[in-house]
Each structure stands twice: as structure tokens, then as C-alpha cells.
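quick one before i forget lol
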Amino acid sequence: MPGPAAAGLGVSAVPASFRFARRPGLESVPLRGPRNRMSVVRRDEASDTAAAFVTACRAAARDPALAHGDVWRLPGTPGPSAEPAGVVRAPHRHGRDA
């Protein structure tokens, strides 16, 4: 069973060395910025960088196609739902007992 990213349901930040580990359904997109740098973020510390990363991840989760076009989607699979997460609509009923 594929992980969330391979299933088109997630975004992961991984080391650059992972670009050599090609997997069906996954696309490696390099991040722009400084190289050979490591950041540590602690839960209770304010960090503009961490806040920007969380904002970018949330935006990509809302609409991956906006962030990366259709590279997130496996061929032959439907695009993202038009419904917000957690919204389930009852089927529309026609006829007398509607």
C-alpha cells in the first residue's frame, strides 16, 4: 500500500539524497534556498521559517494542483474533491419521496 504522498494525499519534506530513490507516483521537487543547512524547531519557540513552512504545507494540502500542477496526481486518478475536508453531502433524491 502506498504512503500518503504516493497516494496523492500528502506532501513530505525529505533530504535531497531521496531524489535518487525513484518511486512510482512520487515526484521530487527541490526546494529553493540555502544548501547544507540544518534547522531545529522546537514546539514552544516562535520561528518565521517554521511558520512559513507550515503555511506552505497547509496551502499545498488544500489544493495540491495549485502548488505543483498535476504532478501530485497518479495517472488515471481523479483530482481533488470540490468539497472541503470532512464535508459529506447526502445524495439528491428525485421523485415523490424526495
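fyi The chain has a mean pLDDT of 68.
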